[in-house]
Design a protein that fits this description.
The complex is a heterodimer of chains A (218) and B (243). Chain A has helices at residues 2-14, 18-37, 41-62, 69-74, 76-82, 87-116, 123-149, 156-166, 168-182, 188-217. Chain A is mostly helical. Chain A has one domain (2-217). In chain B, 39% of the residues are buried. By secondary structure, chain B is an all-alpha fold. The chains are: A mainly alpha (218), B mainly alpha (243). Chain A: Pfam families: CcmB.
Amino acid sequence: MTALLIRDLRLAFRAGGGFGLGLAFFLLVAVLVPLGVGPEGATLARIAPGILWVGALLACLLSLDRIFALDFEDGSLDLLATSPIPLEGVVAIKALAHWLVTGLPLTLAAPVLGVLLNLPGPGYLWLVASLAVGTPALSVIGAFGAALTVGIKRGGLLLSLLVLPLYVPTLIFGAEVVKRGATGAGVSVPLLLLAGITAGAVALLPFAAAAAIRVNLR
Amino acid sequence: MSLWEYANPKKFMQVSARVLPVVIGLAGVSLTVGLIWGFFLTPDDFRQGSTVKIIFIHVPTAMMAINAWVMMLVASLIWLVRRHHVSALAARAAAPVGLTFTAIALVTGAFWGQPMWGTWWAWDPRLTAFLILALFYLGYMALWQAVDDPDTAADLTAVLCMVGSVFAVLSRYAVKFWNQGLHQDSTILKVGEADPIAPAYYVPLVVCIIGFVLLFVALVLLRTRTEIRARRLSALLARERLA
């Protein structure tokens, strides 16, 4: 399993394209929004939590179809499915690899973009915390969506249509944490709910995703 | 004699051919009675005026929009467990009907909200949850469309339906947390408590609900029959190509 993780990370770093693209997209969102809504600090401060979360979510979405598609095309997914590791474990590892190359960098880069969007001071800690807690859920839910669409040619748009409604609870609680954190209100309730969604998704969705892959490999 | 006998496509076609006209007839009668009663024979509300009568379409379609998804979930589970093709096709047949009901509920709600709340749309938990439900229907239907092999499509959409149900419920409670509501609570199940919906509206509303339930059953039966015929047709074409 470690070998699979290292292989996926290596592919992500060396094959180019996937890694960094999400980050660049996240940066672009943070730059384009002030250009669109105007430079007033108060407005930006108010919408910053939501924009940062939506940006992170869309950046995460960009690289989802790579989770399984390349392995499906060259047949390594068949090999992985017949390997001694359970397919559920393969899904979990691949989601972890996806998180390490997208969710984690997004989390670390978010405070910098928070400066661009004039996020109020107390919000930074909660921005990082909520993204750290919430982005694993984005990766796992995305892996499930990618597993559903892996057999479909040019399934990218369909993948977005399937995955975005599933992202709703994560987005709501994640943005709520930052919003409350930025205004100094108590954050524990949305943060715990966000953590609950992540824990539930990480625990259960690999099974659904593995079932979908088995169907697609049939 | 067991329930599963009707999962046989042939048996299903025979029985549904006999049941369908009856259901259509009953749906037509109860909808005609309910809607005419509701629209023309009930008094105007003293504050809402005649807009109160939107309830006779809004509430039944909103109920059926949710129930259609529940029916799809049950049908998907039956497909996953017992592999009855009719079940998978029924789930597929129900999705566009459910989406239509969702859209009708949203649109009639907007028509009512404009004069009453002064806005066509508000980011109220119920409204938002319904919009998200519509997205779930769209994704479900798109996945059916996108996958070529019918069994693969049935399996994948069934899994999506199960996972989607969990997330739809999660979203329902998440949006409650996110914004306070403008939409009033449901009064249908509160009859008998203080200040329920007035009987003058309640009775025709129940007739309308029965009518829309029957309409849903009729449409799903009809569409399932169509799906079965389409499946038979493609099987025939495939056989012809081989011969």
